[in-house]
Amino acid sequence: MPNIGPAELLVVLLVALVVFGPRKLPELGKSLGNGLREFRKSTQGLRDELNVTAPAQPAATVAPAAVAAPAVTAQAMAAQPAPVQAAAVQPAPA
């Protein structure tokens, strides 16, 4: 976004003077100032309201612990059947 320098500001003020005239321009400036003041008051009131009603958040949140795999006990090992191993295949005599 380009910066607005004094030359650009002067052009904008000159255009506003031509469009609205010298009598209406002070009234428009006053209305604009009052509108900005009301906007700031309402946004500040909203910020204050949110700060009062919002509960305090903890500074650091604790990450949930990873779920550990259940420990295998000797009873559990005895209850399960032993895995079947394939027998070694011997080549047939020729």
Automatic annotation (TrEMBL):
<keyword id="KW-0813">Transport</keyword>
<keyword id="KW-0472">Membrane</keyword>
<keyword id="KW-0653">Protein transport</keyword>
<dbReference type="InterPro" id="IPR006312">
    <property type="entry name" value="TatA/E"/>
</dbReference>
<keyword id="KW-0811">Translocation</keyword>
<dbReference type="GO" id="GO:0033281">
    <property type="term" value="C:TAT protein transport complex"/>
</dbReference>
<comment type="function">
    <text>Part of the twin-arginine translocation (Tat) system that transports large folded proteins containing a characteristic twin-arginine motif in their signal peptide across membranes. TatA could form the protein-conducting channel of the Tat system.</text>
</comment>
<protein>
    <recommendedName>
        <fullName>Sec-independent protein translocase protein TatA</fullName>
    </recommendedName>
</protein>
<dbReference type="GO" id="GO:0043953">
    <property type="term" value="P:protein transport by the Tat complex"/>
</dbReference>
<dbReference type="InterPro" id="IPR003369">
    <property type="entry name" value="TatA/B/E"/>
</dbReference>
<keyword id="KW-0812">Transmembrane</keyword>
<keyword id="KW-1133">Transmembrane helix</keyword>
<comment type="similarity">
    <text>Belongs to the TatA/E family.</text>
</comment>
<keyword id="KW-1003">Cell membrane</keyword>
<dbReference type="Pfam" id="PF02416">
    <property type="entry name" value="TatA_B_E"/>
</dbReference>
<dbReference type="GO" id="GO:0008320">
    <property type="term" value="F:protein transmembrane transporter activity"/>
</dbReference>
<comment type="subunit">
    <text>Forms a complex with TatC.</text>
</comment>
